[in-house]
Design goal:
It contains five helices and two strands; from the N terminus they run αααααββ. It is mainly alpha-helical.
């Protein structure tokens, strides 16, 4: 589940920017290519979940606005790299800021207005190591 939509990206970055970012280099810019944008949004959301799931159950059912904003920034960065596209300093900085913010969520420095999961919650994966293995025993 993506934490933002193509329409969210259009609201933030405009139709011209989204058309430029989603149109493959070998095609005319006739409009936003929604499938390209949706793929970037899904990828950005998966990356975000890898940070968020340290503290919250993912995927988030009702993502707060700041999650949608960060998803747009991460997806925009992904869309602006490769396929002969160049990334502006603003896009790089917004991506860097979003990733730092996600790292802060994972560390508990930043909290979302959501219920946190605890270590005993079944939404967390646990790894068991047998006694006598190089890493000892117990559950991590």
């Amino acid at each position: 589940m993506a934490y933002a939509t193509v329409q969210d990206m259009v609201k933030r970055f405009g139709v011209v920017e989204m058309t430029r970012l989603t149109t493959p280099s070998d095609q005319d810019m006739d409009g936003i290519v929604a499938t390209v944008a949706d793929t970037a949004l899904e990828s950005a959301s998966a990356i975000m979940d890898s940070y968020i799931r340290r503290r919250y159950a993912t995927p988030l059912d009702l993502p707060p606005t700041e999650i949608t904003d960060a998803c747009c920034d991460v997806a925009r960065f992904r869309l602006s790299t490769g396929d002969q596209k160049s990334t502006s300093e603003e896009v790089r900085q917004r991506h860097k800021d979003a990733m730092q913010w996600l790292a802060d969520i994972a560390r508990g420095v930043v909290t979302l207005d959501l219920d946190e999961v605890s270590a005993g919650d079944e939404s967390f994966a646990q790894v068991s190591i047998r006694a006598g293995t190089p890493y000892g025993g117990g559950v991590f």
